[in-house]
Amino acid sequence: MQTFLYAKDLGNLSDALALAKEIKANRYAYEHLGKRKTALLVFFNNSLRTRLSTQKAARNLGLDVIVLDVNQGAWKLETERGVIMDGDKSEHLLEAIPVMASFCDIIGVRTFAGLTNRQEDYTEHVLNQFIRYSGKPVFSMESATAHPLQALADLITIEEHKETKRPKVVLTWAPHPKALPQAVPNSFAEWMRAGDVDLVVTHPEGYELDPLFVGDARVEYDQMKAFEGADFIYAKNWSCPGVTCPENYGKILCQDRSWTVTERQMAVTNDAHFMHCLPVRRNVIVSDNVIESPRSLVIPEAANREISATVVLKKMLDAIQ
Ligand code: CP
Predict the structure, then answer these.
(1) Among residues 84, 129, 160, 183, which one has the fewest Cβ atoms lying within 10 Å of its Cβ?
(2) Whose CA is nearest to atom 4 of ligand 1?
(3) Mutation test of ligand 1: which of 42, 49, 305, 308 has the most ligand atoms closer than 8 Å to its C-beta?
(4) What kind of architecture, by CATH, is found in domain 150-301?
(5) Residue 269 and residue 224: Cα distance in Å, rounded?
(6) Domain 3-146+305-320: what homologous superfamily?
(7) If you measure from the C-alpha of residue 84 to the centroid of ligand 1, how many angstroms do you get, rounded to a whole number?
(8) Along the 321 residues of the chain, how does pLDDT read in single tens digits?
(9) Could you give the 3-state DSSP secondary structure of residue 109?
(10) What CA–CA distance (Å, rounded) separates 31 from 26?
(11) Is the CB of 47 under 6 A from ligand 1?
(12) What does the pLDDT read at residue 182?
């Protein structure tokens, strides 16, 4: 596997889920694969879970790890070709990427959407430069439009906790004071469609996700109706994806707190598990009672980030042995 951004990049999903189960039972089973190899993790944006879990996964596989926080200690990087670099950016990605690549065998990149230029974000402008100019396998640690390591961890978590063969999984928008990217809901919708679940997406009008990710999944604008009989509730805020109205791309269209997930909505579910990728704003996205309930999976879900990253890095190492 040379790149990891979409579910299809992983190959057969059932095989990947079986590998995840095997790795969870023995996370050092493939420790020999990374010997004398180095993973470089490049962060353009903050992280807690991705930073820790990906380093742990790399070490499970015997890899050395270098972490670079681009905006804390490195030169500020220009990402656009043709810019006259007389501002505050001292180095261009076109030099920085091959230099970074000369010190590693695999590169992970976290680079969030700018939320001002839909075309630039949806062509994964920064991540694709790493893919094009590094000559190394590159994986997304959440890029402009996708967070596949999170979505794979979410699918592993649902597989572990489902009580019916094909559970009803509801992805619900929830309010947030800041404009957030669509990467998590995009990948969640994409990976749930690739998995064996009944996916329903619910959000206020105007928040329609890109068809590339949401495909033909059922969209229900009435949140209470969407929650009826659900086995898993996955909450997340996202800003306007600009699908129906491109000029609204990246904007906050709704602050309606009635969309906050509380016991009121959970009461109509099939005693659903609650999920969120974290970090989460309590009593904005979800009430204290719901996130603290015995049906909340937010901690095991985060812990499974180590497993999803170990699966992905193992498949990348297989390709460069
Ligand atoms: N869920 C997730 O990716 O968390 P971090 O932003 O803390 O890495």
Answers:
(1) 84
(2) 49
(3) 49
(4) 3-Layer(aba) Sandwich (3.40)
(5) 9
(6) Aspartate/ornithine carbamoyltransferase (3.40.50.1370)
(7) 34
(8) 999 999 999 999 999 999 999 999 999 999 999 999 999 999 999 999 999 999 999 999 999 999 999 989 899 999 999 999 999 999 999 999 999 999 999 999 999 999 999 999 999 999 999 999 999 999 999 999 999 999 999 999 999 999 999 999 999 999 999 999 999 999 999 999 999 999 999 999 999 999 999 999 999 999 999 999 999 999 999 999 999 999 999 999 999 999 999 999 999 999 999 999 999 999 999 999 999 999 999 999 999 999 999 999 999 999 998
(9) strand
(10) 10
(11) yes
(12) 98
What's the confidence (pLDDT) of residue 63? 98
Pocket test for ligand 1, best of 277, 299, 306, 308 (most atoms within 8 A of CB): 277
- For the four alpha carbons of 243, 248, 249 and 251, in that order, the dihedral sign comes to negative
Which of 73, 126, 135, 76 is closest to 100 using CA atoms? 135
Spacing of C-alpha 167 from chain mean position: 21
Q: Which residues of the chain form CATH 3.40.50.1370?
A: 3-146+305-320, 150-301
* Ligand 1 center from residue 86 Cα (angstroms): 34
**Reading across the β-sheet that carries 168-173, which strands appear in turn?**
218-219, 198-202, 168-173, 232-236, 273-275
The tokens describing 240, both together, are 């306007």
Is 150's C-beta closer than 6 angstroms to any atom of ligand 1?
Answer: yes
CA of 204 to the centre of ligand 1 (A): 25
Ligand 1 pocket check for 55: Cβ under 6 Å: no
Q: Which of 46, 54, 142, 285 to mutate to test the pocket of ligand 1 (most atoms within 8 A of CB)?
A: 142
